[in-house]
Model the fold of this input.
Amino acid sequence: MDLNYAPEDREFRAKTRRWLEANTPRHELKTLDERKAWHRKLYEAGYVGMLWPREYGGWGATPMQQAIVQDEMARVSAPPTINGLGIGFIGPTIIVHGTEAQKKRYLKKMLTAEEIWCQLYSEPNAGSDLASLKTRAEDQGDHFLVNGQKIWTSSGPIADWGILLCRTDPKVAKHRGISCVLLNMRQPGVEVRPLKQITGSSLFSEVFMTNARAEKSDLIGGLNQGWEIAQTTLGYERGANSLGRVTRHAIAFNQLVKATRELKRGGRPLIEDPAIRAKLGRVYADLEVQRYAALRVLSALQKSDSPGAASSITKLSYTEFEKRYYETALEILGPYGQLMVAREEFEEVDTSSGEPGTFATAFLWSRAGTIYSGSSEIQKNIIGERVLGLPKEVRADRLKA
Amino acid sequence: MDYSFTSDQQLLKNSARAFLDEHCKPAAVRLLWDDPRGESDTMWKEMAQLGWLGLSLPEAYGGSALGMVESAILLEELGRAAYPGPYWPTVLAAAAVEAAGTDAQKKRWLSAIATGDARATLAFLDADMDWDPAVMTTRAEKTSNGWALSGTKRFVPWAHVANVLLIPARAPEGPTVFLVDPAASGLTMSPVQGMDLATRWVQINLDKVPVATDSLLGEPGQATPLLTSLLRRGAVGAAAEMLGAARRCLDMAVGYAKVREQFGQPIGSFQAIRHKCSEMLLEVENSHSAVYYAAWALDAKAEDEGLAASVAKAYVGDAGRKVCGEAIQVHGGIGFTWEYDLHIYFKRAKALEPMYGDVDYHREQIVRYVAR
Done:
């Protein structure tokens, strides 16, 4: 056990910090072009696509270095990169399962955000039970004809391409008839309708596909192998942003402490109230433990490529923590915790959603974490079955199959 | 950055597990419940031979000069076995003598502790039950040939088997720690028994107990940093023990959920049970991260060592209670019986929860560290 950062990681952090101090935009990035330009600058500095192999335009960096970059970006509240799903999941999927032609065509433009990607997985009736998806792709010789509806699609309106899970064989068991194909979003058969979330903004969309065309040459892996491909994709999400997340919450904690000095109860600042102090102590302990857990995951990633099913514990831990954290923050803030537009400086926090806002915004966003990328209930199923070795449940769809 | 154990540390863990699985079975723990001493001298000597008693003592006194990470590894295993005996109080007291004692005091006690010939304990809590060394009601008054201690020490672990008591008291100069002979005149002990029959506490009443001048640990009035450091170590050690008890309870619950059948299938196949077990594992793994971060921080004298110790004790206090309690729930009725072993570990975690600062105490410390 040695929890000191390695000398080269400390040096890398210092270098990253200097770069961000010199290059982080001082103003809010309003247009997509501004965001793309910032992303491009980060890419050229080696801070995007860090884990990708060099031969595909990546930087061959370590998960620790990537986590350090995220952490340093959080520290200065730097604007986020775009194309996170592309670079985090879709690109790695193409790298592992794609053809040489696909890699040449798509990867570099994904990294540089010349082309924005979205993920077309969930459907209105296929959420946790993703394999029951109904979007059909019919074989038309050189292409598929795609009909169906997707939902919860991040970056939908700005996406140029999507990675699509669709049914290519309706006659076999549901896991066996799914294919994975790349879909051009800029065609008449694809309609994107933004979905307004509980925060009032629209970062998700519904996507309707009506006789849309997907090229056969854009099939990822073999026909009807989509489910296995989707399973491996899900594994890439954890780890990299864990430290950055904790740092954002730690900055929010400082704001919370500031609030408890300014707000009063019974003529005394809240910070002098033992009940408030107990709450602050509880959430901070919880926050620190998330940081330790993040370091532990990074340490494990240094030794092996995949954290495997244990990554479900990480995801469950930090998303459930975020709910507890912002619930407590709002309890402490009283009516100030309701504000979606800051009236006081202490209200302003980085909501870690890409959406600027307040504690109230962060509180609302915390409800999403335990749903997206496999809900807490799905994570607990995975932990129970694959980590603890508990018996599989008897499921109605398995009895039928 | 390496969060995993070294091969030596893993070896220590494995050998501790093997030894305790054989020598500290639930039946052995139960046998000592009715024993007036409450511990086994044979086992104490064996632990000394394994090098556990001198684990963190200097080699000059027969120790291995290892760190808090190694102590935590051992304590986790001791907690997993609900080991009954004065291991941690003795080791903590030895650390105090090593840190602040004179050569004569070290010679007198450290080798004897390493060889298993002496036991020791530390009396943190005064009559008003405050862990803060600044609030100390036991008094030390100067006499013609030394000091006289008066006051009450509560919930002193294993004092009835100790050969030496480390007693903090307020001297005119400030907080001071004294090495006190348990047989000294004016010192009376009465046992205090909680729900865990394998944890023994003693109330010590001090009525002008005479202490010689050479029995001061360090300079008069200078004990606050020592006590703060001991409380931190004590808290991390207790958290490690609670972690061990929690992991035992989790293992028992998962094992039971795999074989116990209701409605024609193992109860572990039901999401209600599986999800509970997954949440328990999450708490155990987070507790592991917290305990070993804190242990490492103490060894590395990291900037956040105090914070990390309080985080570990506060977090694991909650987590241990939750995990051990939910293990009873997973078991159902059998988990509530005296015959079934689960309550041994459930009670051990519970007995450690208030010691070396409870959850509330450490939350307050955390706020002092971070809300400056």
Chain B has three domains: 7-119, 121-217, 224-370. Residues 224-370 of chain B form a domain with the Butyryl-CoA Dehydrogenase, subunit A; domain 3 fold (CATH 1.20.140.10). Chain B has eleven helices and eleven strands.
